[in-house]
Write a structure and sequence with these properties.
By secondary structure, the chain is α/β, with parallel strands linked by helices. The protein has helices at residues 31-43, 84-93, 105-114, 130-137, and strands spanning 2-10, 15-23, 49-51, 64-67, 73-79, 94-101, 124-128, 143-151, 154-161, 164-170, 172-175. Helix content is 23%, strand content 41%. The protein is globular, with a radius of gyration of 16 Å.
Length: 177
C-alpha cells in the first residue's frame, strides 16, 4: 500500500488542491506504472475522478475514470500500452479517452491507427519519459508527500526525502493520432 499526500497547483487550469491517495500496488505492477497512474490523476484532477476499484485485476475497466452524478463515464484513462480493442470499447463508453504511456508512443499510435477504433481522432495520447519516471521511482516510499506543479505544460514534482530536496521536471508530450 502506497500513500500520497499531494499539494497540487495546476496553474494552467487554476486548480489548487490538497488531497490524499492510498493505492494498492498489484504484484505485476511496476513502480513506473504506479507513478504514471498518480501523475495522470494529478493532471486530470476533477470531481468524480477515481481509480478502478479492482485495479489491474479487472482488464475491462479503466485505470482511472471520472463518472458523472448520473453514472455516465465522462473520462476514461488508460496507462501504458492498452490494446486497440480496449480503447475502441473505451471510446464508445466514455465522453473522453486519454492514454498516458511511458513506453514507445510511436508504436502505440501506430497500433491504434492500424485498427478500427471508434472516434480514434479524439483520443489523446500523452507520453512520459521512462527515464524521468525511473528517477522519480528511486525516491518512492510507502508514505509520500509531494508538491505537484503544472505550469505552461511543464510538470514538476517536488518532495523532501529526509533532508534532501528533490525536484523532478517531467516532460509530457502529446501525440497525435
Amino acid at each position: 500500500m502506497y500513500k500520497f499526500k499531494i499539494d497540487l497547483s495546476d496553474i494552467d487550469k487554476g486548480v489548487y488542491q490538497s488531497f490524499e491517495l492510498r493505492l494498492a500496488c498489484h504484484p505485476s505492477e511496476s513502480g513506473t506504472y504506479l507513478l504514471t497512474r498518480v501523475l495522470a490523476y494529478c493532471l486530470n484532477f476533477r470531481e468524480g475522478l477515481e481509480f478502478s476499484p479492482q485495479g489491474l485485476s479487472d482488464p475491462d475497466t479503466p485505470a482511472l475514470r471520472a463518472v458523472s452524478r448520473t453514472g455516465a463515464i465522462e473520462l476514461w484513462i488508460e496507462i501504458g500500452s492498452p490494446s486497440a480493442k480496449k480503447i475502441h470499447k473505451a471510446s464508445k463508453a466514455a465522453g473522453q479517452v486519454k492514454i498516458y504511456t511511458y513506453k514507445d508512443p510511436k508504436a502505440l499510435v501506430k497500433e491504434l491507427s492500424s485498427q478500427h477504433v471508434h472516434r480514434l481522432e479524439e483520443i489523446e495520447v500523452y507520453s512520459l519519459k521512462s527515464q524521468q519516471l525511473e528517477s522519480l521511482e528511486t525516491h518512492l516510499g510507502r508514505d509520500n508527500r509531494w508538491a505537484v506543479v503544472m505550469m505552461e505544460g511543464a510538470l514538476t514534482v517536488s518532495f523532501a526525502s529526509g533532508t534532501n530536496e528533490f525536484s523532478q521536471e517531467i516532460e509530457i508530450q502529446r501525440q497525435r493520432l
